[in-house]
């Protein structure tokens, strides 16, 4: 197995982390869909988004940027752990 995160995983991770901000900018029913699809990461994303807003004081766009970065970092961490586990599993078999 290739070391690290593959190119397809990077593309999927970037696409997934952009679901929330794009849905927020579109609004309407897309807003609800974006929240539902991103819900596993929004608890920490909300905290980080508010941290960015309180640090820079820029409002909604700063919040969306903070949440997007948080979703990306959380997704990257999960992919890294899953890839490490699968590499260890292949070594042991």
Quick structural gist:
This protein has 93 residues and is mainly α.
Characterization of this structure:
The structure is a single chain. By secondary structure, the chain is mostly helical. Helix content is 87%, strand content 0%. The protein has 3 helices and no strands. It has helices at residues 7-26, 29-56, 60-92. Helix 2 crosses helix 3 (60-92). It is elongated and about 50 Å long. It starts with 6 loop residues before the first helix and ends with a helix. The mean pLDDT is 86.
Instruction: Give the C-alpha Rg.
Output: 16 Å
Structural class: mainly alpha
Tally of helical runs: 3
Beta content comes to: under 5%
Tell me how many strands there are: 0
